[in-house]
Amino acid sequence: MASRDERRHHHPDLVPLAALISKELRSEKMEKPTVRYGHAAQSRKGEDYFLMKTDCQRVPGNSSSTFSVFAIFDGHNGNAAAVYTREHLLSHVLGAIPHGLGRDEWLQALPRALVAGFVKTDKEFQSRGETSGTTATFVIVDRWTVTVASVGDSRCILDAQGGAVSTLTVDHRLEENVEERERVAASGGEVGRLSIVGGAEIGPLRCWPGGLCLSRSIGDMDVGEFIVPIPYVKQVKLSSAGGRLIIASDGIWDSLSSETAAQSCRGLPAELAARQVVKEALRTRGLKDDTTCIVVDVVPLDNSLPPSPPPKKHNKLKTLLFRKKSHDSANKLSKKLSAVGIVEELFEEGSAMLAERLGNDECTVPSTSGLFTCAVCQVDLAPSEGISVHAGGIFSTSSIPWQGPFLCADCRYKKDAMEGKRPSGVKVA
């Protein structure tokens, strides 16, 4: 019988089992990061809600398919919309993803599923006849890939390793967002400030009827459906060095710039970091609004973000100069992220047009029941019932009525209302 040395000599390619296991563990550390998180909040009106769920699975029962969801819902005109969205949005998004996809295909399907899930949640909530609304900033972390969908003015920022800070959301405030003002006006809304006695106008730009400052939200059925629930979506892949996400309601961002929020908590673990961001916001402006912050660290396995020295104290003049410089260079810095290999941008789209967001189905496959499915609400449709999301008016020459995805009649009506082609839904006195 050959000795161990002889067997190794005859098979020089054999690798000891311990070395294989060690290699696999190293590969696993690179492939699958650790996600550490914490949150902090101070309530004034009781309309901020949040979601932190780290045990979601792409394939039920398969622990290697685990992903995490973090979200903030900042309600207004009551908390009903925020509560409803917190309870239903995740299941609606996951319900819009085809079954049996591998991880890469699943990640590619996420942006479209997020649009469908947001619109379905809005449609269902509005059918209840309640008039409240909510922002939604919804973050999915799957290994190194981060996908963010947002409506309203809650925000998610990324503090990448190396100190670069970028924003993964777009603020849908009528005051600052010119494109959204133009879209709302073109869809039938009226944009203006609040008029007081004597004709003077005060406060931020609002959409009338209703007086909402935001151009996108979930709910708000008393405002008009040109206030759409179609989210801005951005998907990025972090380098294996990882990074920190700060997700917060406008109670934070009305007080702190993205850079200041990131700097205020560098070197702290996630839970303490979230508390520090809230503390800094309250120190700056006081508790004028519900203030909620979630901090998520996506870091190599068995590792943590390297500690940074605490921010140095500046005199007021230096602080003002620094803030101006930070603000001016924020966009340039964001664009440089990909170039230096810190972040790879995989997807970005912010259009409010449902046809653009749902894309084309070159070959629409019937569901398992043999029927087609509405791309938004996922109800089964007979082939004669579905209306292409690309179908135009009766006399339109640009419509592609035979090409999916398809909508049920109810969702098609909502699409037209959001685009100002039909009177908006139920009006509340």
Note down, in words, how this protein is organized:
The chain has 429 residues and is of the alpha+beta class. It has three domains: 34-170 and 219-352, PPM-type phosphatase domain (Phosphatase 2c, domain 1); 173-213, no CATH class; 358-429, no CATH class. The chain is 32% helix and 25% strand. It has helices spanning 4-10, 17-31, 80-95, 103-126, 178-186, 250-253, 258-264, 270-285, 316-339, 354-358, 409-418; strands at 34-42, 48-57, 66-76, 133-134, 136-142, 145-151, 155-160, 165-167, 190-195, 201-208, 218-219, 232-238, 243-248, 291-299, 343-349, 372-373, 380-381, 387-388, 406-407. Strands 2, 3, 4, 5, 6, 11, 12 and 15 form an eight-stranded antiparallel β-sheet that branches. A hairpin with a 6-residue loop joins strand 16 and strand 17 (380-381). The chain starts with a helix and ends in an 11-residue tail after the last helix.
Please give the structural blueprint.
Blueprint: H1 4-10, H2 17-31, E1 34-42, E2 48-57, E3 66-76, H3 80-95, H4 103-126, E4 133-134, E5 136-142, E6 145-151, E7 155-160, E8 165-167, H5 178-186, E9 190-195, E10 201-208, E11 218-219, E12 232-238, E13 243-248, H6 250-253, H7 258-264, H8 270-285, E14 291-299, H9 316-339, E15 343-349, H10 354-358, E16 372-373, E17 380-381, E18 387-388, E19 406-407, H11 409-418
Helix pairs in contact: 3-4
Cofactor: Mn(2+); Mg(2+)
Pfam families: PP2C
Keywords: Hydrolase, Magnesium, Manganese, Metal-binding, Protein phosphatase
CATH homology group of the largest domain: PPM-type phosphatase domain
Number of E strands: 19
Average pLDDT rating: 82
CATH topology of the largest domain: Phosphatase 2c, domain 1
Quick one: overall form?
A: globular
CATH architecture of the largest domain: 4-Layer Sandwich
Helix content: 25-40%
Topology as a string of helices (H) and strands (E): HHEEEHHEEEEEHEEEEEHHHEHEHEEEEH
**Span from first to last CA?**
93 Å
Family: Belongs to the PP2C family.
InterPro entries: PP2C, PPM-type-like_dom_sf, PPM-type_phosphatase-like_dom
Organism: Dipteronia sinensis
Keywords: Hydrolase, Magnesium, Manganese, Metal-binding, Protein phosphatase
